[in-house]
Amino acid sequence: MALPSKLDQQLCFELYKASSNFTKLYARTLEPFNLTFPQYLVLLVLWEEDHLLTKDIGNRLGLGIGTLNPIISRMIAQGRLIKRQSDEDKRAYVLSLTQKAQEEKEAIEQAIYDKVINCNFIDMSAITLMKNLKQLNLAFSDMDL
Amino acid sequence: MALPSKLDQQLCFELYKASSNFTKLYARTLEPFNLTFPQYLVLLVLWEEDHLLTKDIGNRLGLGIGTLNPIISRMIAQGRLIKRQSDEDKRAYVLSLTQKAQEEKEAIEQAIYDKVINCNFIDMSAITLMKNLKQLNLAFSDMDL
DNA sequence: AACATTTATATCGTGTACGATATAAATACT
DNA sequence: AGTATTTATATCGTACACGATATAAATGTT
Asked: Which family does it belong to (chains A, B) (predicted)?
């Protein structure tokens, strides 16, 4: 019987490396803002829709509370987020952007544009790549992983 | 001027999620063997070529010593690896598979085959995906990231 | 209303992952 | 040979990332 194909081994590995490379690239770009990549993802979510519950952010990023909570705590300490107990549900907490976090949006997006988008390789075949990745993640979401 | 494109934001995010999903899938498959995904990657490397130096494994996996060393230490404690000081270069250490690690290769490959390869989504468009990912990682390697 | 279950968050333990610093051995240079 | 630089590994500090457990509030059941 066929053993794990080379293909599969390479796929998981290429994905692992690509994600790591991308994270490193973003990390360097975000360092001047004293931001990590996961923290930036939280900002992306809240820039799109502010005043979300912890679980909402977790759902959108696919992160559990054990990962998200420390990230949020640090972002509160940084003065980027504010946490308020929800009125409707006293178990839940509403996360909101501070003025600082709202104002730095443009500068951060510009930095990403300069350093990341200008890496021409993004254009390569990003459409196909994205399509495949989305299909992949869709398949995972149907797997109750 | 165009802000960071939606495309880019989605690309980095889809990659992040896909890698995380894959790692989780592998983690579950490898758990019965008391193996983590990065530890499995070290085994993959050494199954292909045994008796490598720490730096060789690091190069092939794209991992620094700060990440790799704790992984190797745990694998030694697990009885999977043996570490011997190199004769040619007394700074370097040769990592070798124990008999246990050699013998469990088949069983682990079978487990991966059953749980991962049988996820039909692998077939989808893995060829295209792989090609794009390799291109991406090649571009990164030219960036002294 | 009393109780059981579910849900939202919190905390803990283990294991990456990276950058910075430290150390000893090897190599290059004068 | 003696010194400077590079190289291979080790250790540390910070920050994810996940699963397990804990707690309190909300919901469902009888």
From this structure: Belongs to the SarZ family.
